[in-house]
Specification:
The chain contains 17 helices and no strands. By secondary structure, the chain is mainly α.
Length: 328
């Protein structure tokens, strides 16, 4: 009987240690263990799907199918042949910038493209990562494409004919080489590991900070206004500013520990697929002539409206078919 009690006590202590590290060494070890697990899952998807996207671009597949998108591009106020820019963006964000350099477009047209590409870019890699982490299905990619086209059409209707823009640094696509591609993939893989470890470490340290609960109470109105609970604030803010892979990585860790509701998981995922790495993505298009406030404002507004509507009376449950995960 005594042995059983000791065994139970040891199990409780073990669980407590997992949830609340006793010292900084434990915090580092826990952060490293969690981040490596998620990083490896992301990298296993990132590399092969990046290579697939490159092959599609280099073999001319995008140029072949771009004419079929001409009518949609015209509804967005864009020349039909600029479909190749949007399709390149679907494959890779920088691919869109590279394709853009071959066109002579107005600041207004570049701004519309900046919003559309911002809403739906790097679909192969980002969708594959979300699917691997069981946060979305393949349909989420089509949802992003539809939202991108809708946003483009709406912007064409309401965007002023003459808006300001400055070409700060024209993007020049470098000559393709497999060696350069391999180096880039390796660099980004290392970056994923390092950044995700730092984010996880900071998150674990914040949990131990005695003022964390006070700050959490003061800022909880932000996620509440959007439509999800304050438990989702951490992964949301990470994904919003840094990128979907990192935000999804934190979301996955919290979901595994049952620290997020199904509603939070779904709504945060929707927001992040439409508005992530918001500063970096926007600045890149601003540098080639896009308008900062129209691009950043439209992306955030689209994400906010969609999430807010779906959060009302748990309406999101009727829209799981767009690619959201089912409740366990």
């Amino acid at each position: 009987m005594q042995k059983n009690e000791e065994k139970i006590f040891d199990e409780i202590e073990k669980k407590k240690k997992e949830l609340i590290p006793r010292n900084i060494k434990d915090v580092f070890q826990k952060a490293w263990k969690n981040s490596i697990k998620v990083s490896w899952m992301i990298i296993k998807i990132y590399i092969p799907f990046s290579i697939l996207a490159i092959i599609l671009k280099q073999t001319g597949v995008l140029e072949f199918i771009s004419p079929f998108f001409t009518p949609l591009m015209q509804l967005m106020g864009l020349p039909g042949d600029t479909a190749v820019i949007l399709l390149s963006g679907f494959v890779n964000f920088f691919g869109a910038l590279g394709a853009l350099s071959a066109f002579d477009l107005t600041f207004r047209q570049i701004t519309i493209l900046g919003v559309a590409v911002g809403l739906a870019h790097s679909l192969f890699v980002e969708t594959a990562i979300l699917m691997k982490l069981k946060m979305a299905t393949l349909r989420i990619a089509f949802f992003r494409i539809i939202v991108a086209f809708i946003a483009g059409v709406i912007m064409n209707l309401f965007l002023p004919k003459n808006i300001n823009g400055v070409i700060l640094n024209p993007y020049v696509a470098s000559e393709f080489s497999w060696l350069g591609t391999i180096k880039s993939l390796a660099t980004i893989s290392v970056q994923i590991i390092i950044v995700l470890f730092i984010i996880t470490l900071v998150y674990e340290l914040i949990l131990l900070w005695k003022h964390a609960k006070i700050i959490k109470k003061k800022i909880k109105f932000i996620p509440n206004v959007i439509g999800f609970s304050d438990d989702a604030f951490g992964p949301w803010i990470v994904g919003f500013f840094i990128g979907i892979a990192y935000g999804a990585g934190i979301l996955f860790q919290l979901a595994e520990k049952n620290k997020l509701t199904h509603k939070d998981l779904c709504l945060t995922t929707i927001f992040l697929i439409l508005a992530h790495a918001i500063i970096e993505d926007t600045i890149l298009f601003v540098m080639v002539g896009g308008n900062l406030w129209w691009i950043i404002g439209t992306r955030i507004l689209m994400a906010f409206i969609i999430v807010k509507v779906l959060s009302i009376n748990n309406l999101y449950q009727k829209f799981l078919w767009i690619g959201l995960p089912k409740d366990k």
